[in-house]
Amino acid sequence: MQLPQLKIGNLLPRLPIIQGGMALRVSTASLAAAVANAGGIGVIGATGMESDELREEIRLARGQTDGIIGVNIMFAIRNFATLVRTALEEKIDVIFSGAGFSRDIFGWGREAGVPVVSIVSSGKLAAIAEKYGAAAVVAEGTEAGGHLGTNRSICEILPEIRKRVKIPVIAAGGIVDGFGVARMLKLGADGVQMATRFVLSKECAVADAFKEMYLRARPEDVLVVESPVGMPGRALRNKFVDKLMHGTQPGPERCRNCLKACSNKYCIMDALENSRTGEVDEGLVFCGQNVFKIKEILSVKEIFQRIVREVQSVS
Fold it and tell me: What Pfam families has UniProt attached to this entry (predicted)?
C-alpha cells in the first residue's frame, strides 16, 4: 500500500501523518519541528501555556524547520480565544481544536488565511464542522489518549464520518505503527493523527520517568479515569490514579481558573505537569490504548521510516 496525499486547505505535507498536539508541554517545539522535518505535520500542544510561551514555542519550531507546524488548543480552557489569536499572529500553518466546539474559530481562521481542523467523534459533529468551515476533521475514537469525547471505537466512527463529509478525514486513536495506519486508510481515512507513539521519541521533552512508564506499560495498566474537565481521560495506572479510583486524591492547592468549567476534584494542570516533569506517582500519565505495543525509543526520523516501510508492506 502507498501512502496517499493529504491536503488541508493549501497545505500538502509529504506524508499524511499528523503528530497529535499533547498538552502541558508534552509536544513542544523540538518534537513538532522534528515531525515537520520528517515530512508530517508537527503540532505544538498549546493548552496550559500563556500567550508569550506559545509565541516563543512557535518561533523556536520555526527556527528548526521549514515544514508544516500547527497548534492544538482545547476549547475547554478559558484563554482559548487568546491562544488562537496568538497562533494566528505568529502565522501558524494550521490549528487543531477539540474538547468542545467553537463556531468563532472558523471565522478567525478565514480572516488570517489559516485552516482550522476540528477534532470530532461523530458524523453529526463532523458535518457541523464542515458547515462552519473546517478544512478537515480528526475522527477520534475511544482508543485515543488524554481526554475522550466518545466510548465508540475509531473503526466504528471513521466510516460514519467519512459518509457525512467531503472534507479530508484524519483518523486518530490507538494508532502506533504503520500497520495501524494502513488499517485506517483502508477504512477511508485521508491521513492519520498519532500522539502516543511520538512520546517515545528522542525529541519528545518529557522526563525519562514518564517515558519509562510507557515502556513498562501492560494492557491492564491502561485505564479510563475521571477528569475535572468534564470528560473522561485515558491514563496509565499509578499511585495518583489509584487514589483517584478510591476518591482519595488531593484536592487543588490553588485554583488557576484555567478551565471554563471544572469539578475541582483535583487540578488537572498540576496532575499533568507533575507527570511531565518526572513526578509520575503524583500525577496523570495520559496515553493511548495501545501504548503497551511500543517497546523502544527512536528518533522521529526513524519512527517515520518504520511507519512508511510497514504501510508499504501491506497489500
Answer: NMO
| Of the options 3.40.50.720, 3.10.20.30, 3.30.1120.10, 3.20.20.70, the CATH number for the domain spanning 17-205+295-312 | 3.20.20.70
Report the candidate in 273, 259, 274 with the shortest Cα–Cα distance to residue 229: 259
Q: What b/e string do you get for 203-239 counting C-beta neighbours within 10 Å, with b at 16 or more? A: bbebeeebbebbeebeeebbbebbbbbebbbbbbbbe
Rg over CA atoms, the chain: 18
pLDDT in tens, 249-291: 888 877 777 767 788 888 888 899 999 999 999 999 999 999 9
pTM above 0.90, yes or no: yes
Taking alpha carbons only, the member of 116, 117, 157, 122 closest to residue 138 is 117
Distance CA 141, CA 171 (A): 8
CA pair distance 93, 9, nearest whole angstrom: 10
Query: How far, in Å, CA of 197 to CA of 176, rounded?
Result: 5
